[in-house]
Amino acid sequence: MASKSKKWANLYLVFVFILMYAPIFYLIFYSFNKGDFMTDFSGFSWRHYVDMFADTRLMQILVNTFIVALLSALIATLIGLFGALGIYNTKRQSVKNILLSLNNILMVSPDVIIGASFLIFFTIVGLKLGFGSVVLSHIAFSIPIVVLMVLPKLNEMNPALVDAARDLGANNYQVLSRVVLPYAWPGILSGFFMAITYSLDDFAVTFFVTGNGFSTLSVEIYSRARQGIDLSINAMSALMFLLSLILVIIYYFISNYSSKNGKKKRGARMVVHQ
């Protein structure tokens, strides 16, 4: 009975993955089409990839997208790190729970509401929509991701390490740079890569806060798709999917390495205590 249930569960899982990835692979498949439409595959060709790289506007938007992703991820990682440290060092559990709940609001709120809120806020303060508004909004929704990546690593850290460093005469900066940051480094890297991934893939929030003279790939792809089928967009979407996949794989290996390293350290501590 158990094996039968497991079989149906695996079949359901396969069905869900097919449902999610079939449209993506269909899009990627036709990016290699020699023709101009997604209804008839007339032969293999790199023509649409060549057209994509020859489109100077699209390449400029690609550069803008990567600049926004890297800059927002870097700043969000820095802010999120100190946010995680602040939550970790909070002594009262009730206050810590409140801070965690406030941190998670942007994670569970619909992107449309977040985007509209940013648009209203930037309009009220008089900030011109464009590069600055996009970077600020991406920083804002990336910070909770970084906090959620870094905080578990801090919670795994033995508080005795900090106490031992202070007993040896280390000041706050030395404790942070030589004890806390090296231990939390895998979580920091994971948060950075996840922030980049979220920034590259975001559409809803970015759509609200972009100006007339600035755009990102997600918004540009949406705008061009409304005007008609252009298989160079398929090519760009294929490259973006591949890049996102690479970032997720990097995140997986960092998390896996962190988990194995943590188990080795805990095992070593048990041997020492015995």
From TrEMBL:
Residues 62-251 form the ABC transmembrane type-1 domain. Keywords: Cell membrane, Membrane, Transmembrane, Transmembrane helix, Transport. It is found in: Cell membrane. The keyword Hydrolase does not apply. It is a multi-pass membrane protein. One of its GO terms (cellular component) is plasma membrane. One of its GO terms (biological process) is transmembrane transport. The keyword Transmembrane helix applies. Belongs to the binding-protein-dependent transport system permease family. CysTW subfamily. PANTHER family: PUTRESCINE TRANSPORT SYSTEM PERMEASE PROTEIN POTI (PTHR43848:SF2). This is ABC transporter, permease protein. The lineage of its organism: Bacteria, Bacillati, Bacillota, Bacilli, Lactobacillales.
